[in-house]
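4.2 Preliminary Data

To establish feasibility before requesting continued support, the project team ran the inverse folding procedure on a target of 187 residues. The structure was first converted into the token representation described in Section 3, and no sequence information of any kind was made available to the design step. The complete token record follows.
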């Protein structure tokens, strides 16, 4: 009898371990940046970037729109404050922005946090106040839908000077990505 009970406990342990591995796999697939999954769409001048206007949360009197930045190369970056790859890529984005903003590079960070803009502002306070200078706003359902549905984060879109999507990347941006696409699209 004890032997049967011991075998049952072992089977339960095995089932629990398999379930944990399966559930963990689903989480990793949802946030591809955790294992650096790359999906680049080199669409060139084929797809006009969906237009939007949003109010910046870290520059309260500033409205952000692609029209305003026409003639510039723009990074539209969808992120969430709870997403490790999103948090990891922000310093690199900021550094590139500071270095190239006078050359026509712009960034619009769009938070997909459901908890609202105050949670994003609190998150930004954890960075040095002078650290994240590129404008950040809250994404809404319309913007997310227009950009193909943001089901995985981070997602980044490079918009060229003519307003077309030049590249789409899902996951944490690799080193050199911004430099390559900025140079390619700033001509």
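Position-by-position output of the design step:
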């Amino acid at each position: 009898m004890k032997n049967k009970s011991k075998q049952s406990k072992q089977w339960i342990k095995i089932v629990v371990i398999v379930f944990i591995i399966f559930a963990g796999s689903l989480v990793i697939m949802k946030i591809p940046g955790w294992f650096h999954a790359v999906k680049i769409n080199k669409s060139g001048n084929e797809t006009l970037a969906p237009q939007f206007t949003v109010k910046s949360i870290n520059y309260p009197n500033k409205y952000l729109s692609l029209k305003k930045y026409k003639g510039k190369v723009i990074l539209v970056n969808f992120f969430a404050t709870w997403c490790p790859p999103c948090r990891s890529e922000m310093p690199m984005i900021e550094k590139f922005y500071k270095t190239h903003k006078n050359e026509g590079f712009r960034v619009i960070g769009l938070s997909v946090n459901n908890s609202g803009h105050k949670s994003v502002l609190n998150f930004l306070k954890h960075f040095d106040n002078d650290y994240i200078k590129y404008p950040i706003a809250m994404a809404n359902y319309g913007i997310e839908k227009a950009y193909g549905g943001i089901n995985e984060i981070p997602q980044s879109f490079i918009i060229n000077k003519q307003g077309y999507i030049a590249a789409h990347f899902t996951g944490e941006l690799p080193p050199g990505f911004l430099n390559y696409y900025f140079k390619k699209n700033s001509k």
